[in-house]
Amino acid sequence: MDDLDRKIVLELKKDGRQSAQAIADAVDTSAVTVRGRIKALEDSGELQVVAVTDFGSVGYDVLLAIGIQVERRHAQDVAQDIAKLSNVFAVNLTTGAADIEILVGAHNFSDLTKFLQEDIGSVQGIGRLTTAVTLDVWKYQSDTDLSR
Amino acid sequence: MTEAILDETDLSILSYLSEDARISNREIALQLNIAEGTVRARVKRMVDEKAIRFTALTRELDVADPLLCYVGLRVDLTLLSSVAEELCELQNVRFVATTLGRFDVLVIVLVDSVEALSAFVSENVMKITGVRRVETSIATQTLKFDYRWGKVL
Hints:
The complex is a heterodimer of chains A (148) and B (153). The longest helix of chain A has 13 residues, at 31-43. Helix content of chain A is 36%, strand content 31%. Chain A is an alpha+beta fold. Chain B has 153 residues and is α+β, with helices and mostly antiparallel strands. Chain B has helices at residues 8-17, 25-32, 36-48, 80-89, 114-125; strands spanning 52-58, 67-75, 93-101, 105-111, 131-145, 149-150. Chain B has a four-stranded antiparallel β-sheet. The two termini of chain B are 18 Å apart. At the A-B interface, helix 1, strand 1, strand 2, helix 4 and strand 3 of A face helix 1, strand 1, strand 2, helix 4 and strand 3 of B. Strand 1 (47-54) of chain A pairs antiparallel with strand 1 (52-58) of chain B.
C-alpha cells in the first residue's frame, strides 16, 4: 500500500459506502483513480469494505465476556466447536487464567440459560467458566482483519 | 429490553453489504427481487438509526503483526465512566466495556509485541486516574473475531 492507498482506506474506514467522487475530493485525486485503487486492493485481498451491524439492533441486549478453562481436551478443539455458534462473536485462545476467551451475545437472561445448557453444555471439555457481564459497551470495533 | 429494529428484509440486504459494502443498491435489489428504492430507503434508515455502519477491513495499518490482548481492570467504582472514556481514546483499543464480574472494565487492544503490551499497561492504562489493578492475557490464536458485529456509536 502506498500513501494514496492509505488515504483512501482511511476514508473508507470513516464511511465505506461514500462515493468514489467524495473520496476523490477528500484525498485530492480523480474518481477513476479511487475506483481503480479500491479494486486493486480488494483483488489482492488487502481490503474488504463491509457493513458492521450493531449487536443491539438485532436484539442482543446482553453481551458477555466468558473465560473458559478447558478440561481433558485440547483447548483448540474446544474453541473450534464454540466458534461455530452464531451468537459467539469472538473466540480466542489465550494465555492467563482462562484457556479460551469468548464474547457472546444474548437477547436476555433466559436466552443465556439456553446458551449455557444447549450450546456450551453440548461442547466436550468445558471446565470452569468465569464471566463478566457487560453493562455499558463504550467501544467495540472490529475493523482489523485478524484472519489474514 | 430494546426491540430488534431490523427485520428479515433488512437482514437480507445486510447479508450482501456485510460481504461487500461497495455493491450497488441496484445489484442488491436484483438479487432479492425487490425495488431499488426499497433498498436505498432501508439502507439509509439503518445508517440513520445507527444499526449499521460501513467500514474498511484491513490488516491494521500501524500494527504490522497484531497481537490481540485482553486487559481486565479493577478500578475505583466512582470513576468507572471516566476510566472507560479515557481507555477508548488509547491507540489500537478495539473494545471497552464496563462489566460486572471478574473485571470492572474489560479492554481488548491490538499491540505488535509483548513488550508493547507491557508498555501499554504501564505507560497508558496505569496512568489513568482510578485504575487499581490490571490483568492481561494474550491471544495465541484467534479462531473468530466476527467483523460483522460491533457497536455503532
